Amino acid sequence: MIEISNLQKSFNERKILKNISFTIDDGEICGLVGRSGAGKSTLLRCINGLESYDAGSLKIDGFEVKNHSEKEIRQFRKNIGMIFQSFSLMERKTVYQNVALPMECWGYGKEEIDKRVKELLKIVDIEDKIHEKPRSLSGGQKQRVAIARALTLHPKILLCDEATSALDPKTTQSILLLLKKINETLGIAVVFVTHQMSVVRQICHKVCILENGEIMAKGAVNEVFMDQPQSLRNLLGENEEVILPQDGVTIKISYSGENVNDRLLSDMAQKIGVGFSLVWAKTEKYRDTVLGFVIINVDKNHISLVDKYLNDVGARWEVLTNE
Amino acid sequence: MSESIYELIHTIVIPEFSKTLYMVSVATVLSAIVGTVLAIVLIITHKEGLKPNNVVYQLLNTVINIIRSFPFIILIVAIIPLTRAIVGTSIGENAAIIPLTIAGAPFVARIIESSLREVDKELIEAVKSFGASNFQIIFKVMLPEAVPSVISGITLAIISILGSTAMAGVVGAGGLGAVAITYGYANFDNTIMYGTVCILIILVQVIQSLGNFLYKALK
User: Fold this and answer.
1) Is B128 within 8 Å of A77 when comparing Cβ atoms?
2) A210 Cβ partners below 8 Å, 6+ apart?
3) What are B80-96's pLDDT values in tens digits?
4) pLDDT for res A254
């Protein structure tokens, strides 16, 4: 479990991290999102001690990361794997040698290394490239090798620093699926720094949105996406111009597939006998659930009926106004 | 005439050529060893290095710059006492190896320093992230990754040292440079002068091609 409370860090009088607090449970996938310069990569590096912090606490299974001897921190890092945007493989070594490197550094025996490397290359599905050098691999294949290398020492946590940002959408998919599989089968917690919201939608259980070194929103992914806080809207950068009607009351309803049936609107028309006009609608898939967003327009004098109905079925809604 | 040239080649050019090869190879090996050590210290103590230490870095940086500012011929003369203390004499090819190494090592240090600096920072972070020690980071990751660019740098250094040996010839080190100057230039013998230059040109070509070949093979 990663417990972060009131974490602070400044560099040259500039505050990079301000009062960061959140927890990540074992086996959870947590997304850290924000624009570049928001401090998310720095925060990620605090987790395995590549960066230090000035105040506050960061504990991993009760181990405070700050202030340790070189030897202690090296030992501690065995529990945390890390992958990067640029894959960070040794160009002059083969796939096998790259994956074997962490175990070599820790002085494992040849046979043990051989067994583990082959096992991991099977998990990441790249056994056929075992003696190739990174130069002859595609981006996705390189990231698979990097994932295998990060897993060699049986870590409990995997840190991903923009791990899919250099990949095309289809390769990104396959890497995300792989990470999801690793998370589910090996129970490894994943902390994923990214600016791609699609990553968060597809694999994360939890999300923290950072802006200028501060957490602006955090929580379960579908909750945050339902609430649509300003920080999330800033990130999505969705400027879909919805032209709102001038008359009547315009209502935005958000619902998740679990608690509201998808015939919400037609049921409403039938049960309370209120007609509406549909202004805009969208559904999105988040990990395992589907979220729906609709904007409708009803007559002013029906609003109390609609209000009661929506509250009864447990949908979230708000009245939109023309600005 | 042709007989005397034949004799000249046998008694002078060939022995002096081997002296040049001897000086260049010993000075290169020594420069490479000292230069690598200096480069590693520079990389480690740099402010973004593995163990930042500004005092050591600046000190070494300044010393290297000072040595590199010396015109080689002045350096030879300036360190004569040191050369005498080490070799016992300031004349001859063994004596020349001292100034050649002192001038060559900082050059090699700079080349290897920049090769090591080119190693991907994220790769170093990745290696740190699984708990490698600083020693392992340098010897298992940075140096092996930098090998091709170190090779092309050392090729450059060999050629520069070869140029310096010719100058060392002026102060009694022997070698092809001395032949070109004493038997060619001072004796008004253009054949000897340009002949030795031709040999040097071929030598430089061979070294450079060999360096390029190794670079490509290792990359």
Assistant:
1) yes
2) A32, A33, A34, A38, A39, A40, A43, A216
3) 999 999 988 888 888 99
4) 84
Task: Give the CATH class of B18-174.
Answer: mainly alpha
Which chain B residue shows the shortest CA-CA distance from A90?
B145
Domain annotation covers residue A257: yes
A→B contacts (Cβ < 8 Å), by residue, are 45, 48, 50, 70, 73-78, 80-86, 88-93, 101-102, 104-106, 146, 149-150, 152-153, 159
- Please indicate whether, in this complex, the C-beta atoms of B129 and A77 are within 8 angstroms of each other: yes
Could you tell me if A184 and A294 lie in one domain? Answer: no
- Residues 6+ away with beta carbon under 8 Å from A193: A31, A32, A33, A40, A41, A43, A44, A159, A160, A161, A162
Residues A221 and A300 in one domain: no
A229/A310 same-domain check: no
Sequential pLDDT tens for chain B (219 residues): 456 778 877 888 888 889 999 999 999 999 999 999 999 999 999 998 899 999 999 999 999 999 999 999 899 989 999 999 998 888 888 899 999 999 999 999 999 999 999 999 999 999 999 999 999 999 999 999 999 999 999 999 999 999 898 888 777 778 888 888 888 888 888 888 888 889 889 999 999 999 999 999 888
Same-domain check for residues A221 and A268: no
Q: Which residue has the tokens 């093979």?
A: B217
**ipTM value:** 0.81
Q: A84–B141: do the CB atoms touch at under 8 Å?
A: no
pLDDT in tens, A143-161: 999 999 999 999 999 999 9
Residues of B whose CB is below 8 A from A73: 131
Amino acid symbol at B145 = E
- Angle at the Cα of A298 (from A293 to A303), degrees rounded to 5? 100
Nearest Cα of chain B lies from the Cα of A47 at a distance, in angstroms, of 10
Name the residue range of residue A261's domain: 249-320
Say yes or no: A177 and A273 in one domain: no
pLDDT of residue A261 exceeding 90: no
Structure-token match 């000292």, residue found: B34
Nearest beta carbon to residue B126 from set A78, A88, A152: A88
Contacts of B122 in chain A (CB under 8 A): 84-86, 88
- Look up tokens 């620093």; give the residue: A161
Number of A to B CB contacts under 8 A, please give it: 77
In angstroms, the CA B86 to CA B95 distance is 8
Among partner residues B131, B144, B218, which is closest to A78 by beta-carbon distance?
B131
Identity of the residue in B123, B125, B129 whose CB atom sits nearest the CB atom of A80: B129
- Assess contact for B179 and B10: CB atoms under 8 A: no
The minimal CB distance from B136 to the residues A89, A105, A159 is found for A105
